[in-house]
Design a protein that fits this description.
This protein has 3 helices and 5 strands; from the N terminus they run αβββααββ. The termini are far apart. The protein binds guanosine-5'-monophosphate (5GP).
Amino acid sequence: MQGCDTIFDKILAREIPASIVYEDDDVLAFKDLHPQAKIHVLVIPKRRATSLHDLKDQPAANVGAFMIAVAKVAGHLGLAHDRSGYRVVLNTGPHSGQTVFYVHAHILGGEPLGSFGK
Ligand code: 5GP
């Protein structure tokens, strides 16, 4: 079944290794195994959800806290420095290309990124 025991559940449980770049009470952030940009980090909430669409059933404060954490991680990575910026992607469901059914935000940056979706 989708979303029960994903690779990200295992990373969160420290059952498999990951290159962790940030952790607090609410989120864990680690480097993507197959980076699509100079910096490519994934952020997951510790309270599991399958996708963004699943998050709609959680209190708005949780979802807000997740997005704030994403921005904090990007800042921690130096991506907001000099307003260089970054891209956040939340693939949701198979048509989007989501392959790991534990909600995660991709943070991409560290270099100019191509136009999205072209
Ligand atoms: P999705 O396609 O679901 O939005 O993104 C899943 C991401 O997880 C992909 O970018 C993929 O490279 C990454 N990924 C898959 N398996 C692992 C893993 O075992 N460790 C890490 N760090 N990233 C992974």
